[in-house]
Amino acid sequence: MKKNSKSLALAVSLFMLVFLASSAFAEMVQKHVNFGQDANKMQWYLMTYGKNDDGI
């Protein structure tokens, strides 16, 4: 019983570590460029991921 609970705790901890690391990396890479509102009061954004048209 103890071995199963330790394995479960380790798996949950590892999952949380991977999830938090991937979330932090995604937040760091994405940038929002706000284009403002149009005539219909719709808000427009452009998402940039740090790459230019050449894929670099």
Summarize the structure.
With 56 residues, the chain is an alpha+beta fold. Helices cover 50% and strands 23% of the residues.
What does this structure look like?
This protein is an alpha+beta fold and 56 residues long. It has one helix and two strands, in the order αββ. The protein has one helix at 2-29; strands spanning 31-37, 43-48. It has a two-stranded antiparallel sheet with strand order 1-2. The longest helix has 28 residues, at 2-29. It starts with a helix and ends in an 8-residue tail after the last strand. The model has no long low-confidence stretch (mean pLDDT 75).
Please state the average pLDDT score.
75
Estimate the helix proportion, in percent: 40-55%
Please write the string of helix (H) and strand (E) elements. HEE
- Sequence stretches where pLDDT stays below 50 over 5 or more residues: none
Q: How big is the Rg? A: 20 Å
Class computed from helices, strands and strand pairing: alpha+beta
The largest sheet has its strands arranged as 1-2
Identify the overall geometry: elongated
Give the DSSP E fraction (strand runs of 2 or more residues).
Answer: 15-25%
List the total number of helices.
Answer: 1
How far apart are the first and last residues' alpha carbons, in Å?
A: 51 Å
Number of beta-strand segments: 2
* Sheet with most strands: 2 strands, antiparallel
